[in-house]
Design a protein that fits this description.
This protein is mainly alpha-helical. The chain has 5 helices and 4 strands. It has helices spanning 32-48, 54-81, 85-90, 99-103, 124-136; strands spanning 2-4, 7-9, 94-98, 113-117. A hairpin with a 2-residue loop joins strand 1 (2-4) and strand 2 (7-9). Helix 2 crosses helix 5 (124-136). The longest helix is centred in the middle third of the chain and has 28 residues, at 54-81. The chain is elongated.
C-alpha cells in the first residue's frame, strides 16, 4: 500500500532490479495519474527541445559501434606492445554511455557522453599517446 494524500492506494510492483550501487527508491509500477503526467512531460519536452531524428539516431549508433571497434583495437595493440599476445587475444574494451544519450534525451547537435573501460595494464599515458591520435584519424 502507498499513501497518496489521505488515501491508501494499492500499487503493483515491478521486478526487483538494481542498476548501480544503490537500491531503487521504489519498485512500484506507475499509476494512471503518473503515466498521464509522464506523457504531459514528454509533450512539453518535445515542444521545447525536439528529439533527434531516427536517421540521426542510427548514425549515432554507428558512431558508437565504430568507437567500440577502435577502442578494442587500441587495447589489443597496447597488450601486444607490452609483449603479451595471449592477453591481447583475451583483452577487451567496454564502452558505456551516460548523460542525455543514456537517458534517451538526445536533441539535434547534442554530444554523446562515453566512458571507455580498459584492462588495468592499459595506462592513462597510453590513452593520450595512442588512442587519442587513433580517434583523430
Amino acid at each position: 500500500m502507498e499513501v497518496q494524500g489521505d488515501v491508501k492506494v494499492a500499487r503493483a510492483t515491478g521486478p526487483e532490479v538494481k542498476f548501480g550501487v544503490t537500491d531503487p527508491i521504489s519498485l512500484g509500477m506507475p499509476t494512471e495519474a503518473e503515466l498521464a503526467l509522464d506523457e504531459q512531460l514528454h509533450e512539453e519536452m518535445n515542444s521545447d527541445a525536439p528529439l533527434e531524428t531516427e536517421e540521426k539516431m542510427r548514425f549515432r549508433a554507428e558512431v558508437l559501434i565504430e568507437l567500440k571497434r577502435i577502442c578494442q583495437q587500441w587495447v589489443q595493440e597496447e597488450c601486444i606492445s607490452q609483449g603479451d599476445e595471449d592477453l591481447a587475444q583475451r583483452a577487451n574494451a567496454k564502452i558505456f554511455t551516460f548523460g542525455s544519450y543514456r537517458l534517451g534525451l538526445i536533441s539535434p547537435g547534442s554530444d554523446i557522453d562515453v566512458l571507455c573501460v580498459a584492462p588495468k595494464n592499459i595506462t592513462r599515458e597510453s590513452f593520450f599517446q595512442a588512442l587519442v591520435p587513433k580517434l583523430q584519424e
